[in-house]
């Protein structure tokens, strides 16, 4: 695929509509390689990774956007995260076999949570909607209609090799020609799953919107990258407390903490553990003469 691991924006000239393509290949496979996901679980994870990156492209922020689905069905947890540099990571958990391909067959009843952590101003925004609709894209569209009140359409697809997506959206703060939006939406609805997976961004634009005046921007790279670090794991260890950490050391000889997203294991022996807590304890104030 020409556009593998890229995000590519486009704009309808003189009309207040923007669009974005996402094509994930190596980054999607890197996320899936951490666990032996059943194919249907991997495909939902791929669609969620594509969706989170598309959603992140619609806002200006420095931090992370996290798309989470929690449910009581076979696939009971799905997390996809991207940051402002289009680094992505994701995780899925399933508890039983999945029979059927509808959203309710896969997830059962649940909710979609979208969280934006903005490091620029330490603000945190969170929106929650019910997991409803025939597909994951339909559920996310419902989030936009309820939370953002922006005309938004989303098409997602994934197979064992790649995950792809197309977003069409009204520009925020701009007046929308509803007739033109319906025209573009109708054209977008003619895209097929196979075309999304097989065609490049340029080919899809020509296939759907060859009569429209469109400006296509240069593709932007997307990559799999986990944000875990030893310092972050040290913070987790400190939250356990020195007493609990010593108990684990006595029982197991070492403390092992793993990152669920990338399977990286962090090891702390007795010397490591004592040093961590020693450096975290402020020294006593010196005695001063009265």
Task: Please characterize this protein's 3D structure.
By secondary structure, the protein is α+β, with helices and mostly antiparallel strands. It folds into two domains: about 5-225, 3-Layer(bab) Sandwich (Hsp33 domain), CATH 3.55.30.10; about 230-280, HSP33 redox switch-like (CBS domain Like). It has ten helices and 14 strands. The chain has helices at about 25-35, 40-55, 105, 135-150, 180-190, 195-200, 200-210, 230-240, 240-250, 270-280; strands at about 5-10, 15-25, 65-70, 75-85, 85-95, 110-120, 125-130, 150-160, 165-170, 215, 220, 225, 255-260, 265-270. Strands 1, 2, 8, 9, 10 and 11 form a six-stranded antiparallel beta sheet that branches. Helix 9 (about 240-250) packs antiparallel against helix 10 (about 270-280). The longest helix is centred in the first third of the chain and has 18 residues, at about 40-55. It is elongated and about 70 Å long. The N and C termini lie far apart (about 75 Å). The relative contact order is 0.16. Mean pLDDT is about 90; it is low at about 280-290.
Proper CATH architecture of the largest domain: 3-Layer(bab) Sandwich
CATH domain class name of the largest domain? Alpha Beta
Beta-strand content? 25-35%
* Through-space gap between termini: 77 Å
Shape: elongated
Strand count, sense and closure of the main sheet? 6 strands, antiparallel
Low-confidence stretches: 282-290
User: What is the total domain count?
Assistant: 2
What is the helix tally?
10
Name the average pLDDT: 89
Number of strands: 14
Assign a percent range to the helix content.
25-40%
Order of helices and strands: EEHHEEEHEEHEEHHHEEEHHEEH
Instruction: Give the structural class.
Output: alpha+beta
